Amino acid sequence: MSFPGPVDLRTVLIDSPTPGTTVEIRTVPVAWATIDRTQVIGAATLGDGVTQIVARTPAPTDRVLVWISGLSGGESGFQSRLSEIGFLGSGA
Question: Dihedral through CA 42, CA 62, CA 65, CA 22, nearest 10?
């Protein structure tokens, strides 16, 4: 996700029908950055419905990556779905 200007990202809300998915919220310093150049600011295992992820160290950023670090397991194998992602913060 990219924003038109820097925002002080505080919270990410993820709505998912696949509980057990693990995600990381990462800031991205420049477009096309490799994963090792990103910084984890929050992480969670998603529940059924909306999961709130609070940034550990809010910092102004204009690019955010929602990285799925683990898929949900079930009878039909491993899969994850994200229905909606919301970002809460303020202009920096």
Answer: 20
- CA Rg, the chain, in Å? 13
Distance in Å from the first CA to the final CA of the chain: 17
Q: Which residue segments constitute the domains of the chain, with CATH numbers given?
A: 2-91 (2.60.120.260)
Q: How far apart are CA 27 and CA 49, in angstroms?
A: 24
Please say whether the beta carbons of 27 and 38 come within 8 A: yes
- Phi first, then psi, for residue 37 (nearest 5°) are -95, 0
pLDDT tens, position by position, 19-58: 999 999 999 998 889 999 999 999 999 999 999 999 988 7
∠ CA 14-82-76, rounded to 5°: 135
| Structural contact between residues 45 and 22, judged by C-beta atoms closer than 8 angstroms | yes
* pTM (2 d.p.): 0.89
